[in-house]
# Entry
Amino acid sequence: MIIEALEIIFLFSTALMIAYLARHYVFTLTVLRRTKNPIGKIAVDTKYAPTVSILIPARDEETVIGRLLQRMTELTYPHDKLQVITIDDASSDRTGQIAEEFSKHHPFIEVLHRDKKTGGKGKASAMNAGLKRATGEIVLCFDADYYPQIDIVEKLVKEFVDPAVGAVQGRPVVLNEAQNVVTRLVTLERIGGYRVDQEARDNLGLIPQFGGTVGGFRRSLLEKLGGFDESMLTEDTDLTFQVYLAGFKVCYVGDAECYEEAVDNWKAYWRQRHRWAQGHMQVCFKHALGVLRSKKLNAKEKIDGLLLLNVYFMPVLTLIAFFAGVSLILYQSSQLVNALWFIVPVSFYSLVGNFAPFFEIGIGAYLDGRTRIQWLIPLLLFAYLYNILICTKAFLDLLAAKILRKSWSDWAKTRHLGNGNSYIGN
Amino acid sequence: MIPNLTAIIIIIMAVPVLILITFLPAFIELKKPKDGGPRMIMAKIPQVDLGITHFIPISNIEDEQKFDTSLIQTMAKIIVILPSLEV
# Structure
């Protein structure tokens, strides 16, 4: 009986790994083919220039907030159509003062101060406070450690000409990548995830994901959806699915690029990924059935949506498959499982790079003209082993939280130090 | 069953070699990074291509054309009498 159960678990896990592997091959080939033979996009209405509100949630970001606000003053989008709202969320450092200084000299920059009583309840809560003040037709979001291209607003908002587009997502690029091995590996993950994965999902009409920053929404849609869900750890993924379930789509704009400061040590990496994993799993529990039942999603969107929702369960499943496989080899097992045993390590290695496998990252780096960084790809094996532990812990924590009915209302924020400033030349 | 000694020796030697081959490029790149990152994303400012400026003889353009001022004086005299030709 136990042997049969282990066999089923093993075969199910292996089948899922192969499905994800095939998905990533399709993504990679799609982007390679489209790069060689680009499809002409619908002519853009260059006169389309809606009013835009930019939300910048910031809590204790004195090292980076000035850099971003300075960039806001340099944006090429007409300033009379811009509203920049800095949400100083109960900061205990000079974040609010720096923002006020910019506000004095630039009328389109506003500062929303939240004290310890009203603020400090998480990014989603801060964003909702900013949303109440926003007046623009389009609402864009930037984290405080980001540093966008000067024409990024034009690039992002032009997609809203299409009334079916409810949200857009640009491409984050790691600024401090040369800092150490962690920032280099994060860079590789970002290249695979955005240059190939997001791009392919957009090209194939699947579900590109809104990442919570370097992107935005139609304000009317965001308000209709009730704003950002404050009970979610990853309110961005939650909104992605809400947008699709409401009958709109998310558009990925690969040429709208923005620098970000990546985590620079394994502890911070653990905290960030643990939050992402837990939040993603939360969203999966919330939306999986809705995606299956939705009449507004077509079959391929449903398949991609479910694979996307389950992506953080895969490292956990890899661990389960490994132990099931070892047990089956040590004890009695059928010939089928013996024959399939070799697939586990193959799938395991193919999934290296966590959510973008090695070949996808390699092609992404190649398309970016980055051949030398590909030499680091084997090191992603260690990042993946680390992610197995992170996701397993996140899964167990989520189960415990479900049982204990715990909710989240804190900023699980990454500390930013302004590293990589030397690369910002203009 | 006695394991094949040759096979064991080959495996013992092959595993470190395999690990070395897999990770050596990564260690080389970490030790002496030659990657040009981070990716440059800023809008390009149009610049004059300095490589072609030597083809443009800006400084001595009058000398090169052997500009003849007497020709202009002759033309000026002709233009002065033009109105008197009007009927």
